[in-house]
Amino acid sequence: MLIFPLLPMKQFLSLLLGSLFLLSACTVPTASQHGGGHTTKGLEAHALALQDQSNETEIAFRITEDNKTFMDFGISHTKEMHLIVVRDDLQHFAHLHPTRDESGTWRVTYAAPAGGKYWLYADFVESNQSAHTIRFKRTHTGDLGEYGILKSVETTQHVGNGGGYDITMDATTLGDGGVQFNYWIYDVMGADQKLETYLGELGHSVLISPSGEFVHVHPFKEYVGYDATNRTHPVFVTGPLEDPYYRVFTQFQIKGKIITVEYDWQR
After folding, report:
1. Are the beta carbons of 85 and 208 closer than 8 angstroms?
2. Strands 82-87, 25-27: pairing kind
3. Among 30, 99, 157, 177, whose CB has the most other CB atoms within 10 angstroms?
């Protein structure tokens, strides 16, 4: 695996960016908590719930208000619904996009890669852009395979995608308790790789803790190197993080293919 050391200039930029950026997130710890893993953001948010209708081969659910099917959805990052799936040991991550039928039921084909308890996060907005993240749980049969939260402190990852890429990341804790994640993306020859727009952004980063705390952030547009011709250094910043440990799942698109990398952050 090729590992490219961080240059002094990159370290300088990391410190500089940490003093400039503000939070950009779909769901933040300061949003309203409704219990049962339901977080909302928006003064006009409706009191919504989720009814799970899934089976072993399909995830199916309805969003309800006062036991009636809710249909007034808006668009968030080019989709009406984002569904994050991960086992409760933070393995087997998936980012899915269910479709809604005429009855208001959201459906997507899904077969769990291993047995165990899974957390599912329905992440969406209403037409008034009030945001909701509702967590529900499912248990899948089958062999557990390797189970347990295996923490890693590696900051350089190599992912195969055609020729492969080397993705270097460092994290800086900010004064407000948030964290800045800086990524540098190269091909195996060491050349910078430009990111393509994926779901309306140059990247999506989901942080999930062992308690199920969920945070979803995107790259900032106000940093050196972020423009239409130079998209090689994505930077993500969270608000204050409640838990001491999160697994960070980050997705990019390069040359038409989606790359997912994982990083373990500990306070």
Report:
1. no
2. unpaired
3. 157
**For 158-192, what is each residue's pLDDT tens digit?**
565 555 888 888 888 998 989 999 888 888 888 88
Backbone dihedral region for residue 13 (phi beyond 0: left; psi -120 to 50: alpha; all else: beta): alpha
Partners of residue 185 on adjacent β-strands: 167
Instruction: State residue 3 phi and psi, 5-degree precision.
Output: -125, 125
Residue 220, pLDDT > 70, answer: yes
Q: How many domains are contained in the chain?
A: 2
Secondary element (H or E) of residue 263: strand 257-266
Q: Name the residue among 179, 224, 228 with its Cα closest to residue 28.
A: 179
User: In Å, what is the CA distance from 1 to each residue of 94, 164, 193, 196?
Assistant: 25, 10, 17, 24
260 and 227 co-located in one domain: yes
Q: Which domain holds residue 181?
A: 8-26+149-266
Please tell me the distance from the alpha carbon of residue 38 to that of residue 47, in angstroms, as a whole number: 10
- Helix segments in the chain, DSSP class H: 8-18
